Amino acid sequence: MLRWILGGREAQGTVEKNSLLFIGEEQPKNWFTELQVLKGHFDIVRFLVQIDDFRFASAGDDGLVLVWNIETGERLLELRGHSQQITAMTAYTHAVGEDTHTSLITASSDRTLSLWDPDTGNRVQTVSDLQSSVKCILVLERLCVWVSGGNELCVWNRDFQLQCQSQQHDDTVIFRLTMSTGSQLSVAEVRRLSDHQDSIHALINVNDGLFASGSHVGELILWDTIDWTIMAYEHILWEESQSNPQAEIRLAAPKPSEMSIHYLSLDVFVSYVLTKSVVAYRKTAHDSNILHTLLLPDEGLMSCSEDGSVRMWEMQDLLLPAEPASAGFFGMWTFGRSSKQASPPVKKILECPSLKTLELTGDLIGHSGAVQMFLSFGEKGLVTCSTDHLLIAWKNGERESHLRSLALFRKLEVNGGL
């Protein structure tokens, strides 16, 4: 089953700016009725990384990395060392003898990279002679290396030793990482993704042979990873509805709005893409730009926005005529095509009796600023971070009440009653 979530933003000047489309199975409800505010940062919190089943790390513009316990909300460690804002953070799990150990890798605008031990809070390794700040970090566990990207691409081993690097680049580029018989690594540029008309904001791996990219002007391209040709191309457009159709007679068709693609999520790939249809959509999902969306392990769908909200959705039948939608980002795909269409395809109102809408089932209101992202711990709860400098742990109220009751009964049993 192929499941895509698209969180978009329309062109400037439009009213309905933010949309969600979803392809997948029907989603059950998720309820978070209890919250715990976690204080520790004094600037925007942008990153959340899970360390294990109980711990996570947060980082942002204050240069701090804080380690927390999701169940208790306790701040376990403060990792201090960066002098400027954190620009990237990831977990790095590697073998230590017969066991595994998870470390944290952070990058900062101070042009340093750091490796942290979240058990002790020690900074184990550091690199401070970078030519520019790192914007993203990718761990390649199979090769026991990790990659840092910015104005240049660098490949590092687990000991923070530079293995190879590329020349400086400004575009979105595909690189090939090659390991020789002597375990020597080399990186070479394969292709620049110049087929998009604007900046690429989203990349996702579909399977070993396909990946997809989304651009600022709403282009979604499916690529072949063998010869880097375009397998499918779709320009996502919404037909603008007329608020007062009787005010004047329009001879021309409604002007379509371009949707900026900011996030793509894929769960499991099978052959669902061949149906080429949108299962559910919600054109007005938030009051401002969507920053992050996520499929939760229990099949819930969530999104967060610059409007400060985190919202939960489920699919429901579209009983009455609703806002018009395009044929969807699968609607015009033709597999096997090696180049994109010369002109934008003509969009039609979607005629699908099984089309559903994404209905709001929960709205987590707690932040006073834009919610940057969130991190799910399943039944243990959800963590959100924001520009208001706060983190909030959201819990299932019934579960937490049950756990408190069990703890009270155990304490009474130990103390021999009241």
From TrEMBL:
Record carries keyword Repeat: yes
Q: What is this protein called?
A: Uncharacterized protein
In its UniProt record, which GO terms are filed under biological process? regulation of autophagy
InterPro entries under this entry? WD40/YVTN_repeat-like_dom_sf (IPR015943), WD40_PAC1 (IPR020472), WD40_repeat_CS (IPR019775), WD40_repeat_dom_sf (IPR036322), WD40_rpt (IPR001680), WDR41 (IPR040102)
Q: Which PROSITE patterns match?
A: WD_REPEATS_1 (PS00678), WD_REPEATS_2 (PS50082)
**Superkingdom to which the source organism belongs:** Eukaryota
Give the organism the record lists.
Answer: Esox lucius (Northern pike)
Q: Which UniProt keywords apply?
A: Repeat, WD repeat
Q: Where is the organism placed in the taxonomic lineage, from the top?
A: Eukaryota, Metazoa, Chordata, Craniata, Vertebrata
WD repeat ranges? 38-78, 79-126, 283-316
GO (cellular component) term, any one: lysosomal membrane
